[in-house]
Design the sequence.
């Protein structure tokens, strides 16, 4: 039982840093509420104990102060529905201070987007202290921003005594899931890495080569590896300055006895669009004027076979341009293979960001072990870095 779980919040006012950075459509409707649903048990625990809750979050990346499209007021109605009680809203910090002081047990107050204040991302201590004054206990449940040393994620914790600051259920579950694949994975351990660039995943790939039995490389970064093996990749995305690095990673996999699986073929397109002309080509023989946008049929079979029989699976990054339906087959094949391996007893961790979006969109969310809510945070944690938001709780 965690410290959070065993603490009684009766009569306490908890300032809870959540990650409600959810996607909204043009009518401000939430298109994916995964992060909100993940935080519900933490908030309900405090409310059910007889405490009150002040919710802090950011939304998007506002550049020049307040902007309506990034306002958390758009979440008030859906949150009220989720918790079955009215959620109060404070559009300024002064209003938040006033409303927080009047909160009764079982009540919820949502404070406006913290990134409307430049002091948030600057980690300003005075601003952090002002946020801390909104409650008498601090709960950080925003794993998705735990790698940021912002006022609300790392700095404000110091204004609470050690016994009054906690990790919420999401934060604990995320760390537990990452540790499970990092520290004592059941074997065979298969990692599937996708996404556009090798440079985004270098540290993680290097660390995984010391841990996994099989490493699959898909997505845009596969073409850097194909070119590193002196293949012709046409107009596919390539990081020419990373070719030597890709060769070094291929060699390291050999030295470590890790089976490195690179896709043999691709679905190629003559332009970056869902309605582009398409064909299939070997990954080393893509003609000029064509670009690889998804795993080809042989690569899909190759990846499916490599995942079958795994006992531990980590997936981070899509296999192609999955937001275009015509180039989503590779990502779907991997999702399906991971779901089937999980149903056969494997433990599967889906890295946040695009992988989480893909698994949700494709309808596999309830067929894998754990979907991370934090893309960058999970990557940094798995690379072995200290996350300021985790370290601040102690």
Sequence:
């Amino acid at each position: 039982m965690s410290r959070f779980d065993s603490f009684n919040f009766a009569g306490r006012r908890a300032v809870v840093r959540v990650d409600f950075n959810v996607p909204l459509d043009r009518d401000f409707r939430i298109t994916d509420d995964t992060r909100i649903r993940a935080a519900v048990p933490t908030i309900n625990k405090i409310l059910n104990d007889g405490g009150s809750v002040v919710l802090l979050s950011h939304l998007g990346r506002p550049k020049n102060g307040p902007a309506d499209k990034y306002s958390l007021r758009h979440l008030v109605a859906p949150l009220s529905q989720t918790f079955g009680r009215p959620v109060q809203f404070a559009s300024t910090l002064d209003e938040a201070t006033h409303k927080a002081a009047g909160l009764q047990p079982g009540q919820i107050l949502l404070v406006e987007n913290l990134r409307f204040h430049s002091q948030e991302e600057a980690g300003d201590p005075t601003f952090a202290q002002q946020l801390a004054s909104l409650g008498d206990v601090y709960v950080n449940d925003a794993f998705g921003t735990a790698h940021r040393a912002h006022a609300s994620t790392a700095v404000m914790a110091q204004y609470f005594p050690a016994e009054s600051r906690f990790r919420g259920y999401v934060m604990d579950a995320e760390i537990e899931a990452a540790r499970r694949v990092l520290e004592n994975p059941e074997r065979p351990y298969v990692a599937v890495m996708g996404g556009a660039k090798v440079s985004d995943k270098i540290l993680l790939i290097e660390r995984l080569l010391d841990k996994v039995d099989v490493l699959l490389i898909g997505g845009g970064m596969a073409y850097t590896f194909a070119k590193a093996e002196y293949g012709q990749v046409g107009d596919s995305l390539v990081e020419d300055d990373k070719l030597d690095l890709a060769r070094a990673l291929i060699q390291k996999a050999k030295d470590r006895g890790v089976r490195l699986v690179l896709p043999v073929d691709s679905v190629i397109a003559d332009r970056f669009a869902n309605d582009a002309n398409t064909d299939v080509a070997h990954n080393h023989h893509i003609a000029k004027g064509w670009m690889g946008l998804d795993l080809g049929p042989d690569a899909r079979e190759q990846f499916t076979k490599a995942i079958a029989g795994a006992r531990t699976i980590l997936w981070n990054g899509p296999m192609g341009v999955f937001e275009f339906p015509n180039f989503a087959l590779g990502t779907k094949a991997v999702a399906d293979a991971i779901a089937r391996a999980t149903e056969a007893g494997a433990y599967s961790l889906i890295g946040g960001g695009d992988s989480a979006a893909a698994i949700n969109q494709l309808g596999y969310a309830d067929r894998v072990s754990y979907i991370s809510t934090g893309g960058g945070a999970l990557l940094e944690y798995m690379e072995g870095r200290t996350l300021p938001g985790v370290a601040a709780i102690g």
In short: The two ends are 17 Å apart (CA to CA). Residues 145 and 377 are 6 Å apart (CA to CA). The first strand starts at residue 13 and ends at 17. The mean pLDDT is 95.
